[in-house]
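re: ur question from earlier - yeah i can do the single chain one, its not a big deal. heres the input i used so u can compare w yours
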Amino acid sequence: MSYNQDLKNTNIPARVAIIVFLNQAQDQFKLRQFGDIVYFSKRKKYCLIYVNQAGARELTIKLNKLHFVKKAEISPTSELNFSREHEEGQINKLATEAEQILEENEEYKQ
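and the output i got, formated as tokens:
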């Protein structure tokens, strides 16, 4: 369950992360007016900013039009499934695939 789902019953607005790839590292200071910068990578030249979910799509379009922004996209974290059942299913799937690969390799050795 995500934080935004837990916040539906409260009066706190839902937030979403926008990943903004920049042309130059110092351009990060120009993004302060759009939202809260929570992470910045100088080497990879990108920022992670949090904004209200209500205007996130429009803001992403606006950021993509700026000359100092290479690309802006909404982070897919809200679409990820962190439920226990999903994780166990993924682990079981990987385990069966690994066992099949091991069996195939043993056949080649003989």
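The beta strands are 15-22, 36-41, 46-52, 69-74. not sure if urs matches, ping me
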